[in-house]
Amino acid sequence: MSQLIGNTPLFELVCTPQKSRVLLKLEQFNPTGSAKIRMAQSMIKAAEQDNRLQEHGTIVESTSGNTGQGLALLALERGYDFVAVVDNHSCKDKLNSMRAMNAQMCFVSNQDDDSLATSARENHAEELGKQHGWVFMKQHDNVANSMGYYPAADEILNDLGESPTHIISAVGTGGSLFGVTERLHQLGHRPTIIGVEPEGSIAFGAPGHDYWQSGTGTPEGAVIGTSVRYDLLDYGAKVSDKAAFAACRTIGKHMGLLLGGSAGGAVIAALELLPGFPAGSTSLTMVCDGGEKYLDTVFNDEWMSERGLLDVALEDKIWEQVMSLRAGESPISLNSTRVSWSKEK
């Protein structure tokens, strides 16, 4: 399956009469349905090359699901065991997928606790690695994380024939956004880089609080990893769970394209920021995964309502924004994106 990694398609979400556009790189077309398999492959190869990972070895990693799915698949292919340290905040389908690929699951929270436990997961994964001599991948501080996304930058250039003018993408570990950026810089391109995280994440400014967007941001109490490259970042923006999920549901309802929650946050930021960009600009978002993994959460009215996240009026406004941009009309004021970090500060 690993030979199918990469060469994911670009999808044009919006193009204005002034030829400014928003493109989505649909990483759900990778094996395991996520961009994270790129960095899983890169981290495993790096561990093999420096002899940390040897024949019949065991990999351990803290994961909210997508990284774990990638590691589970590649461990199978390469003859390793894989231990996934998880919490019950993770999407159930992701957990079941890892089990189906023979991963050993280690929970840091009980079944009734669906809160995000990133710090506890990472601490336990590191402890297991030391205790058993397993290879802890430590994705947030692993240089091979970002390097795994270099091919994605090459694909973007090949498909567009030029560099995007803006990249607006979610920031979790930071690997996808800053890996693509590093590679573009190596090739002489300098797009404007805008990172997007959930309200409640601390990478672009406190205070932190709980949030529901999965696999993105840095929760309060967790350490911001070295893969988050502020030196490569121009702006950091925050988007609420309600707005991010409304964007996912809007695109799904009107276009039949299901996006994961982290991509929803980046999409709504792109839709709000696009009117301020020059004519002819090309903004690109890395879509980490598809919405098929979130049918029981983001796309489930009951789950959304129970958590106060369902906002049909906002969904309608987002679609009005899309149609206004396409028609060249005055954009709708969504007030959903807050720029909280800037290199200019």
Automatic annotation (TrEMBL):
<dbReference type="InterPro" id="IPR001926">
    <property type="entry name" value="TrpB-like_PALP"/>
</dbReference>
<keyword id="KW-0663">Pyridoxal phosphate</keyword>
<protein>
    <submittedName>
        <fullName>Cysteine synthase family protein</fullName>
    </submittedName>
</protein>
<dbReference type="InterPro" id="IPR050214">
    <property type="entry name" value="Cys_Synth/Cystath_Beta-Synth"/>
</dbReference>
<dbReference type="GO" id="GO:0016765">
    <property type="term" value="F:transferase activity, transferring alkyl or aryl (other than methyl) groups"/>
</dbReference>
<feature type="domain" description="Tryptophan synthase beta chain-like PALP">
    <location>
        <begin position="2"/>
        <end position="289"/>
    </location>
</feature>
<dbReference type="GO" id="GO:0006535">
    <property type="term" value="P:cysteine biosynthetic process from serine"/>
</dbReference>
<dbReference type="Pfam" id="PF00291">
    <property type="entry name" value="PALP"/>
</dbReference>
<dbReference type="InterPro" id="IPR001216">
    <property type="entry name" value="P-phosphate_BS"/>
</dbReference>
<dbReference type="InterPro" id="IPR036052">
    <property type="entry name" value="TrpB-like_PALP_sf"/>
</dbReference>
